[in-house]
Amino acid sequence: MSDHSTQSTNFRVNLAGIVELLSGNLYSGPRVFVRELLQNGLDAITARRDIDPECPARIRFVTDGQTLTVTDTGIGLSAAEAEDLLATIGATSKRDELGFSREDYLGQFGIGMISCFMVSTTIVVYTRSAKKADAPVVRWEGRPDGTWSSRQAEADEIPVELTGPGTTVVLTGLPGERWFDYRTLATLISDYGQYLPVDVTLERPTTDAEHLADNTVPWELTPAAQAEWCREHFGFKPMFGIRLDVPVAGLKGLAYVLPTGAHPSAVPKNRVYLRRMLVTDACVDLLPDWAYFVRVVADAEHLKPTAGRESLFDDSLLAETREALGQAVRDWLSALAREQPDDFRHFIALHATGLKSLGITDPTSLKMVVDSVPYQTSLGLKTLGEVLKKTGSIRYVTTEDQFRAVLPVAEANNLCVVNAGYVYDEQILEQLKIEQPSADVAELKPEQILGVLSPLDASTEARFLDFLSVAEKSLEGQDIICEVRGFSPATLPVVFLSDPEAAGIRLDNRMKDKSGGIYAGLVDIMCKDRPGEHAPRLIFNATTPIVNELAASVIQAPLVVESAVRGFYIQALMTGQHPMDAQVRAWAANLYTPLIRASLKNSATTTGGGAAGTDTGPDTPDEPVS
């Protein structure tokens, strides 16, 4: 019987291709090599501290512009460990080799070390293990063609920086690249490692070391220093600062409240550290979407990074953390509303629009809007929740013009009307109906206005019959019904209902001037067109002096009454933004002619002058027209 046994063979790996793959997909760019060197050094020091808690903790960068030497005082590697860990791309566990839990560190030697090929022609590592006294220094060299070699280092080639246990990495810059320039390195080291719990230094071969790590994180600074940190890193002076603490993730930090309005779709600039190492300065998934008005700086012990370690791994722990941070912001908002109402109103004025935009699709944001955002109502500023609690329902109009005009009627009759004329308001109310089906939420109906317009008794109605006849004749051709009712306020002479059964309502009010001249106040209740239903109505207020004066002038001044009625109607159409046909436009063009003639005639008669319209000659001074 033939032998069908097979032999396993390892894949051949093109290291140059791997480096290109890493730089183009796993990492955002070559700059991450500094983070990987810092992370490997920090992990090594963390490992050494477990067997030697008093060991020195330093990561030292030395550059001459072309060659970079990075030395840490960590646990170091034996020859076997160097071969296994440094030469194995994608090694995922240090626990087996070093005996420590994965939670104690972030990095992994293989991929992290390979990232250095993005900036260096070779990687040379000198390492001495802390596990054994008088351990030799191992020299490991990796090349971009995928080959490597390892041997015991000669005494004269050991870097002067490696004076005890630890590791020194020597990189030689790529031609034409400037990643090893002093200021470039200083910026990158500060960005990634500013808050590392070790001493991180940078120096030139002939200069003193510059210490770049500061163990004081922003949330441990004074309030003034916290605000200054925000200005330097986020670019704004914060309105408020919110302390963050999420024990399950080992997270602590600060949320800075933006001092100006922002759009929820703006890319957040949250700055996140894991065990004091910067992961990203543009984290997009740390906070719920509705918390767009804060920028966060935070450090977490237990959250996990993605493979490239430039964002957070979206697992159940991150989801729990996100919810906890959202709750912290909600708690802060509640406390602000309760303890600092003026500041809360200022906050809402800045960010209400953004919250509303999110409330359309996010139930949490909707609840925040309903409970926290004050709306303009005919009974003063109130949240939607307060309106529901006080009146048991919400009645709203959908434009600013509608609200401004309905306000006098609603105020005078204790009718609560919500101004939903701003962006997202109508959608918020529609969404509220969906989220709370039991809530009585609806657009204001004309019959609710008609309900406060009292019919006249028979004797009073009889007094206005001639006036109504003239009014309807004045508007002949417009298919409109004229009525007289009594309602408050007494300063509002007319209400125009374009369709009593429609939902859209427009009201406008022009108040009487101090001299007591003629004024017009038009209430326009506008609706969606429903052909064949009720004709529009112009309802006159029997409690206003101007309407009573017009009714009393039907016989003596019919042209004045006709012009006044048409004026009310034209103003109603203009205020309600209704289209005007040719007949109405003609009325508008000639509206003031009969009124001016009547005024001139009355003036001449009162002063005993000549007949109206008669030229009294140049020697007779004209009376001023008022």
From TrEMBL:
Binding residue positions for ATP? 36, 40, 72, 167
Among InterPro entries, the record links this protein to: HATPase_C_sf, Hsp90_fam, Ribosomal_Su5_D2-typ_SF
Q: Region Disordered: what ranges?
A: 603-626
Q: Which residues cross the membrane?
A: 105-126
Under Pfam families, the record lists:
HATPase_c_3, HSP90
Record-linked Gene3D superfamilies? 3.30.230.80, Histidine kinase-like ATPase, C-terminal domain
- A molecular function (GO) term: ATP binding
- Family of the protein in this entry: Belongs to the heat shock protein 90 family.
Q: What is this protein called?
A: HSP90 family protein
Please name the source species: Corynebacterium mendelii
